[in-house]
Amino acid sequence: MATNIQGNSIERAPIGVFDSGFGGLTILRDIRRALPHYDYLFIGDNARAPYGTRSRELVYEFTLQAVKHLFAQGCHLIILACNTASAEALRTIQQRDLPHIAPTRRVLGVVRPTVEKVGELTRTGHIGVFGTPGTIASGSYNIEIEGMYPGYKVHGHACPMWVPLVENRESSGDGADYFVKKDISLLLDDCPEIDTVILGCTHYPLLIDKIHKHMPPGVKVVQQGPIVAESLANYLQRHPEIESHCSRGGTCQYFTTEDPDHFSPLASVFVNEPVQARRVIL
Ligand code: DGL
User: Fold this and answer.
1) Pocket test for ligand 1, best of 84, 90, 227 (most atoms within 8 A of CB)
2) Spatial CB neighbours of 148, under 8 Å, sequence gap ≥ 6
3) Which among 91, 35, 13 has a CA at the least distance from the CA of 232?
4) Cα 53 to middle of ligand 1, angstroms
5) Do residues 128 and 196 lie in contact, with contact meaning Cβ atoms separated by under 8 Å?
6) Which of 53, 69, 129, 177 is geometrically suited to a Cys-Cys bond with 141, CB 3.0 to 4.6 A?
7) Strand partners, 72
8) Tell me: the pLDDT tens digits for 49-79?
9) What are the pLDDT digits (tens) for 146-162?
10) Helix (H) or strand (E) holding 256
11) What share of the chain is helix, strand, coil (3-state, %, to 5)?
């Protein structure tokens, strides 16, 4: 067991990564690529996905259950690899729950790091955001981007069919073409000056072939995985008191609230390695 400067032992545990379903794997994949030496514990709440069409109260309740479970497994740091949970539950968990349940542990989201990056990418200052109905209705991206870059305009567009397409393994079918094309047209018809579009849902990179196929050339598509990975690496450097609690074995354990026999084969494709998930009840 490792020791700190005073010679006291430090408990180390995996970094927790949470999403409503498969989408968080797109973030996990890039985090592991950038920071391969840490251990990770992933939970997908597939049994209750999608979160994006649920009430804010339920998203908060489900997310808090997952956070408490990951803390009970020893995690000191949790990444909410889910925009809906980041937009609708993170602030309350950070400000109201953490001081009581785990004052020395941390929960981070995916909205803030994405917003910090997007200012470098747009030329027109018109930024599109695709997200779940919950994320778009929360106005999180508008508040964060317009607060950080006064003068920029954010055009949010909810894509309620995209997550069900992924969760139901329809991401390469004709249905995906229909809905992706339609939502891209609706966003860009509304504001042709948009030159940068954030995929503000971690499931959407799983539709990336369709998105590239239907997005006009010249419009940048922002995927969050590499951005969140870079931001996490930076965070761990700046926070040795958290980093020292992250175990370093290069392993990854996968849990799902659904049937692991359904989860594992598709998850293996997304993370490009064999996955043997186990069932968890939150
Ligand atoms: N992948 C999640 C997100 O980034 C949630 C999708 C959902 O469950 O609706 O928003």
Assistant:
1) 84
2) 115, 116, 119
3) 35
4) 9
5) yes
6) 129
7) none
8) 999 999 999 999 999 999 999 999 999 999 9
9) 999 999 999 999 999 99
10) strand 252-256
11) 50, 15, 35
